[in-house]
């Protein structure tokens, strides 16, 4: 990550973390967030899944929420995920679900969090669906991995998690979880982390990302590669061709609102492509991370809003 990009990312995440900025943004910035958020209701989100399905694009739905303050909120989110999984089944949508462990109470009571997630995963299994437990910042990395391992030991294998390539530990985690046959989404990483635990240079992050992706593809483990980076996408395509890995052995994942034409193009080329579709009223933390990833994301949002006003 260059000095300018690093400054932009840290500055934006710091500014958006100020309570007054958050209050103003959530009051007046909903239109900006609509670039990345499918809507506030399940019905709106399922409609987007249906439309993308017509283009051959799969989905994972995320009911937004994290960093709750009371366990009653966690219980409410669990109920929303039960409803979400039922809604997917009822309309036969080509979608699985993604959730955050802090949304289920990890920071407040790990035992309650585990019970909530287990209920969601069990309901998903009954409905032949899959749950992806998102990876948050480093205070929760090991706890999140432990949750998934415990669920697998209980026979609930329709659950996986995420590894962030910018963390020093991720390559070792990938090797271990690969041996345990735990499904992973591989990403660069989107949180503000210190140079004590994470690579800061873009070149280092990309090298780590490629090593982890290659490890999975070489071992013929189904691989979910979440990236909008043309370098990564082209590298994966070339690597798969060279190694004789079929397109059915991996999938690309991208975010709702970003490079939608490219997502449709990948689907048309015969690649498996899944769109991460968030919805709900608690959109602010997710939205600020999207803006912080690249200055171009902020420019796209502003351009999008300018176009809507004309």
Description:
By secondary structure, the protein is α/β, with parallel strands linked by helices. It has one domain: TIM Barrel, CATH 3.20.20. Helix content is 53%, strand content 14%. The protein contains 13 helices and eight strands. It has an eight-stranded parallel beta barrel with strand order 1-2-3-4-5-6-7-8, surrounded by seven helices. Strand 6 (223-226), helix 10 and strand 7 form a beta-alpha-beta unit. Helix 8 packs parallel to helix 9 and helix 9 (202-218) runs parallel beside helix 10. The protein is globular. The two termini are 35 Å apart.
Q: What is the secondary structure topology, with strand pairs?
A:
Blueprint: H1 3-16, H2 19-28, H3 30-33, H4 42-53, E1 58-63, H5 71-90, E2 95-99, H6 110-126, E3 131-133, H7 141-153, E4 159-164, H8 170-179, E5 184-187, H9 202-218, E6 223-226, H10 230-243, E7 250-255, H11 260-268, E8 272-279, H12 284-293, H13 295-309
Parallel strand pairs: 1-2, 1-8, 2-3, 3-4, 4-5, 5-6, 6-7, 7-8
What is the subunit organization of this protein? single chain
Could you say which structural class the secondary elements and strand pairing correspond to?
alpha/beta
What value does the Rg take, in angstroms?
Answer: 19 Å
Name the helix and strand elements from N-terminus to C-terminus, one letter apiece: HHHHEHEHEHEHEHEHEHEHH
The biggest sheet amounts to: 8 strands, parallel, barrel
Please work out how many helical segments DSSP would assign. 13
Mean pLDDT: 86
Name given to the CATH architecture: Alpha-Beta Barrel
